[in-house]
Design brief:
This protein is an all-alpha fold. It has helices spanning about 15-40, 45-60, 75-110, 130-165, 170-185, 190-210, 215-235. Keywords: Hydrolase, Membrane, Transmembrane, Transmembrane helix.
């Protein structure tokens, strides 16, 4: 599906080693999630993601891999910037179009609705502009946009690609499984929300792969999409979710 970028799998690394490392990182992230939620911390998911990213970074260093191997670098030169801007715009347009043309009709056909409590984690900043802005900067951009893209698209998708093989079938399997995991991470939104975020994760992951495994465009697109959604939620006093 893509051949751009260095392989982050070291010579002689076994599938067992790949899956063990990935499970250790993912289970550690779930542990961080439990700890952060037990402490009733705001942005518990973002805190857990960064815990997972730090652990992943340490394990990557042991096998000689860097985040730049997964596409975490700024574009260089006019051509790369043009490609990145085009990819960012394409992701944003495709995701918003999928919400209205795919996700809403599909969940409606299946008789599914978003969980009534799906927006509860965001009610605390309603009517508080400075708190809202702080949440957008720290949690939306630092946690969801940067954190989720590093962890889900950068680390997890590539480790699954290492496991299944760097070929069209292998990347397709990796893309589907990573999208299911991404959707499952949004269980608080109910089954409809999990399906929706899973589809969005698939779309973002697909653009990441076909775009040459560039993280910059999907990070910016993710941040813009979430910012637009939460801004609509804020200014509608929670009516638009």
């Amino acid at each position: 599906m893509t051949s751009t970028g260095a392989s982050a799998i070291r010579s002689g690394e076994t599938r067992t080693a790949i899956i063990v490392e990935t499970l250790v990182v993912f289970l550690a992230m779930l542990g961080f999630t439990w700890a952060a939620k037990s402490a009733d911390l705001i942005g518990a998911g973002s805190i857990a993601l960064w815990g997972g990213i730090i652990l992943a970074t340490l394990l990557m260093k042991r096998r000689g891999a860097k985040w730049s191997d997964y596409g975490f670098s700024l574009p260089k030169g006019a051509k790369q910037w043009s490609i990145s801007i085009a990819l960012t715009a394409a992701v944003i347009v495709t995701v918003f179009a999928s919400m209205f043309l795919v996700i809403e009709p599909l969940t409606s056909f299946l008789g599914l609705e978003e969980a009534p409590t799906a927006s509860d984690p965001f009610k605390f900043f309603l009517g508080k502009p400075l708190v809202f802005l702080g949440f957008i900067v720290v949690v939306v951009w630092g946690g969801a946009a940067l954190g989720e893209e590093l962890f889900l698209r950068g680390y997890l998708l590539n480790r699954l690609g290492d496991f299944f093989g760097h070929n069209p079938l292998g990347w397709t399997m990796a893309l589907i499984i990573h999208a299911i995991i991404f959707g499952s991470m949004h269980v608080y939104q109910g089954f409809a929300g999990m399906i929706g975020t899973g589809i969005i994760g698939f779309i973002i992951g697909l653009y990441y792969l076909v775009g040459g495994r560039r993280l910059f465009p999907v990070i910016i697109a993710h941040g813009v999409i979430n910012t637009v959604g939460l801004t609509a939620y804020y200014f509608s006093d929670g009516a638009i979710t």
